[in-house]
Each structure stands twice: as structure tokens, then as C-alpha cells.
Amino acid sequence: MGGEGRERVLVAGCGYVGTAMARDLVQDGTEVWGLRRNVERLPSGVRAVGGDVRGADALDPFPKAVTRVAYAVSPDGREEGAYRAAYVEGLESLLHRLGREGHPVRRFVLVTSTAVYGESAGERVDESTPPRPSNFRGRILLEAEGLLRDSPISGSSYRLGGIYGPGRTRIVDRVRRGEARCAPGPAYGNRIHRDD
To answer: Is the pLDDT of residue 14 over 50?
Structure first.
């Protein structure tokens, strides 16, 4: 494994989204390393990196010559400190290790959220909407996006909202049962399936 020119992907945060991504990459023949605290939950074929992303400098084993990174972590809780630990401290730690060791990362994908937008009263949001977070979650996610943007690694931030899929179908189930209701007039939603 790990032949010359082969992609070596690190998925930091193999939870709901990261695990599905890692599983798909393994099926495509990519060498995938999954970073999470509980490595027993990694899908088959994903190489384990056990630990907290905030301590990236101490993680062992750690893949050599990582070519791509997907950062899809989740906070331990809903309070500000948990968000800062996951999205800012963890990202800083991982970027530091990748840079210090000279990994040939060609692409870094950071999964954030539509929380970076402040709109919450039904306003339309698209690619041209400037971020104006109205709470600490959005502010911290926007700070994380800035960390990646200011790093020497080429990266993109994906602002996902309303992730649904296996085990997360509450709203879809309400629609199916005819229980979902919208106020009169235009109604907008923001949903993305985990596998997309």
C-alpha cells in the first residue's frame, strides 16, 4: 500500500459524515486513514488513528505523505468551549503537524455549517451571501474557515446544513406522515443527504 502517486487521505472526524466518506473512498481503492477517539467504530478498510485532533502532534500511528484531508469533526457538546476545541484548536493542531512534517497535501476540505450566515427569518442564502454569524457557533466556524484560508495548504470550506440520512430522518418522516406544515407564502429549506 501507499505506492508512488497513490492518494493517501486522512479523514479527521470519522463520525456521521466522515465515516460515510471514508467508506466510499476505501471502496474506490484509496488508502484512507480515519482519525477519531473510538477507532473501533471505523469502517472496514480504514486505517486507524486514535485520539483527539487537538493533540495531533502526539498522534501515533500517523499516516506518511498525506495527499488529501477531510476535516469533518463534531464538537463534544453544544457550548462555546466545545466548538472552539473541535474547530479552532483541533484544526490548528492538525495544520501544524501537516506543515511541520511536510506532508504533500494537495487538497484540504473543511466541513462547516450554514451557521456562518446570520439569516434566520426565512431570508434567501446563496453563494453570494456574505457570512454574518449571529451566534458563537457561526463565529467559531468562520474563524476555522479563516485558519484554513490563511494556511499554506489549498483548501475549501463546505457549509453544510440540514444533514439527513440513515438514522437522521425526523423531518423527512414528518413530511411522509403529513405532519409537516409551512406558513403561507414561499418556504425555503436547506437539506443535504449525508451521502451527497
So the answer is: yes
- Global pTM exceeds 0.90: no
Q: Which residues have C-beta within 8 Å of that of residue 181, sequence separation ≥ 6?
A: none
Prior bond of 61 cis (ω within 30°): yes
The whole-angstrom separation of Cα 50 and Cα 32 is: 14
Terminal Cα distance for the chain, rounded: 28
- Distance between alpha carbon 191 and the CA centroid of its chain, in Å? 16
3-state SS class at 138 = helix
Kind and range of the H or E run holding 146: helix 136-149
45 CB burial (10 A radius; 0-12, 13-18, 19+): middle
Q: Any idea what DSSP says for residue 130?
A: P
Q: pLDDT-based confidence at 132, cuts 50/70/90?
A: very high
Q: Does position 1 have pLDDT exceeding 50, yes or no?
A: no
pLDDT in tens, 28-69: 999 999 999 999 999 999 999 999 999 999 999 999 999 999
CA atoms within 13 A on the CB side of 86: 25
Q: Measured between alpha carbons, how far is 38 from 51 in angstroms, rounded to an integer?
A: 8
